[in-house]
Specification:
The protein is of the alpha/beta class and about 375 residues long. It is about 45% helix and about 20% strand. A hairpin with a 5-residue loop joins strand 6 and strand 7. The radius of gyration is 21 Å and the shape is globular. The structure holds 3-isopropylmalic acid and magnesium ion. The site of 3-isopropylmalic acid has 5 residues, from helix 6.
Length: about 375
C-alpha cells in the first residue's frame, strides 16, 4: 500500500490505562484482531500508554506525544483510569493526565451510556424481572461542562483557620442547546422520547436548562416527545419503572450519578459500554472516545476475573459511531448476546455457586461465537 493511501486511513488509538483496563481492553483488542483477519479493517490501530504505566516511565500520566496521537485519532478505545497508585501522584500531575482533561481537550461533550436489559441476565439484577424486562434506555450525559469544570473551584483557607471547598455549577445556553440537539437526534432514531433531567426547583442552572431544552424542542424538534423530571425523582424512577425512559438527557454530575443508578438494571457495571463524542467538524469527522463504564476496579485488577464485555461492546459502539461499520457492530452485539444466552458468565454476572469463566475465557467465547456467526454468512 502506498504511503499516501496509508496516511488516509482512519486511526483507532487503544489506551488500556489502569486497574482492570489492560485486561478488558486486551480482550477488545483480540476481537479487533479477529475482525482484521476475518473481515478486514478499514482503519489502523495504534497502542499507546496512559495512566500509572506512563507516569512510572516519564513522570507524566499523559505525555505530549500521546496527547497529540490522541488528538490526531478518529477514535480512542479507553480502558480505565484511577486507583490507589494515584494517592502518591501530585494533584497537578493528576489534573494534567486525567480522563477529565482528555474529555475536555477532545471536546467530548456528549456521553452516551446505553442500558439495554438482556433477558438471560434478568436474575443478575437485584431488581425484579418484571421491572427490568424490555428496558432499553440511553443516559445522555453532558460531559465537558457543569460542576466538573466550573470556576471558581478550589479549597481556600479562611481567616478563622478553617477551610472552604468551592465548586461551581454552570451552564450556558449554547452548552445546553448543543447536548439537547444530540438528545433529540438520538431519540428520532429510537422511540422518539426525551426526558430532560435537572433540579430547576433549586438551581438557576437547572431552571435555564429546562427553559432552553423546551425552547429547542418547540422550535426544532416538535416530532419528539419532551418531558422534564427532577434529578432526585429520576434516580427513583430509574429503579421503580425504568421502562418509561427512552433518552434521558442531563448534566455532567447528574449524568454521572444516574448512569450508575441505571447500571443497577443490568446488575453489573461490567455490562455497560459508553461512547463520548464531539460534534462533526467541517470535514465530517468527529472525535470520539469509547470506554466501559465500570472504571479501574482496583480491587479485582490483575486477577483475570474482570468482565470484558463492556469493553467489547464499547468497541462495537466505535464501529457504529466512528467507522460506519454497523454490520460489524451488530455482529459483536449478536455474539455477546448469544454467549450470555448460552450461560457463559464472568464472576460479576454469575449466579452464586455457579462456575465463572476468566476475562480471557469470556474473550475466547465471544471470538468463537463471532467465528460461528461469520461462518453462517452473517
Ligand atoms: C465516570 C467516572 C468518572 C466521572 C470519574 C472516574 C472521574 O465516574 O466516567 O462515570 O466522574 O466522570
Ligand atoms: Mg461515574
Amino acid at each position: 500500500m502506498s504511503a499516501a493511501v496509508a496516511a488516509n486511513r482512519a486511526i483507532l488509538v487503544v489506551l488500556p490505562g489502569d486497574g482492570v483496563g489492560p485486561e478488558v481492553t486486551g480482550e477488545a483488542r483480540r476481537v479487533l484482531e479477529w475482525f482484521d483477519k476475518r473481515r478486514g479493517l478499514s482503519f489502523d490501530v495504534r497502542d499507546r500508554v496512559i495512566g500509572v504505566a506512563s507516569y512510572r516511565k516519564s513522570g507524566r500520566l499523559l505525555t505530549d506525544e500521546t496527547l497529540s496521537d490522541i488528538m490526531a485519532a478518529d477514535a480512542v478505545l479507553f480502558g480505565a483510569q484511577g486507583g490507589p497508585d494515584y494517592d502518591d501522584i501530585p494533584v497537578k500531575a493528576r489534573r494534567e493526565g486525567g480522563l477529565l482533561r482528555l474529555r475536555r481537550e477532545l471536546g467530548l461533550y456528549a456521553n452516551l451510556r446505553p442500558v439495554k436489559a438482556i433477558p438471560a441476565l434478568a436474575d443478575v439484577s437485584p431488581l425484579k424481572p418484571e421491572v427490568t424486562r424490555g428496558v432499553d434506555l440511553l443516559v445522555l450525559r453532558e460531559l465537558t461542562g457543569g460542576v466538573y469544570f466550573g470556576e471558581p473551584r478550589g479549597i481556600e483557607r479562611l481567616a478563622d483557620g478553617s477551610e472552604r471547598g468551592v465548586n461551581t455549577q454552570v451552564y450556558t445556553t449554547g452548552e445546553i442547546q448543543r447536548i439537547g440537539r444530540v438528545a433529540f437526534a438520538l431519540a428520532r432514531r429510537r422511540r422518539g422520547a426525551v426526558c430532560s433531567v435537572e433540579k430547576s426547583n433549586v438551581m438557576e442552572s437547572g431552571a435555564l436548562w429546562r427553559r432552553v431544552m423546551q425552547d429547542l424542542h418547540d422550535s426544532e424538534f416538535t416530532d419528539v416527545k419532551l418531558s422534564h423530571m427532577y434529578a432526585d425523582n429520576c434516580a427513583m424512577q430509574l429503579i421503580l419503572a425504568p421502562r418509561q425512559f427512552d433518552v434521558v438527557v442531563t448534566d455532567n454530575l447528574f449524568g454521572d450519578l444516574l448512569s450508575d443508578a441505571a447500571g443497577s438494571i443490568m446488575g453489573s457495571l461490567g455490562m455497560l459500554p459508553s461512547a463520548s463524542l464531539n460534534g462533526l467538524d467541517g470535514q465530517g469527522r468527529r472525535r470520539a472516545l469509547y470506554e466501559p463504564v465500570h472504571g479501574s476496579a482496583p480491587d479485582i485488577a490483575g486477577r483475570g476475573i474482570a468482565n470484558p464485555l463492556a469493553a467489547i461492546m464499547s468497541l462495537a459502539m466505535a464501529f457504529r459511531h466512528s467507522f460506519a461499520r454497523d454490520s460489524d457492530a451488530d455482529l459483536i452485539d449478536a455474539a455477546v448476546g448469544n454467549v450470555i444466552a448460552a450461560g457463559v458468565r464472568t464472576k460479576d454476572i454469575a449466579a452464586s455457586g455457579t462456575k465463572a469463566v476468566s476475562t480471557s475465557g469470556m474473550g475466547d467465547a465471544v471470538i468463537a461465537e463471532l467465528q460461528r456467526l461469520n461462518d453462517q454468512g452473517r
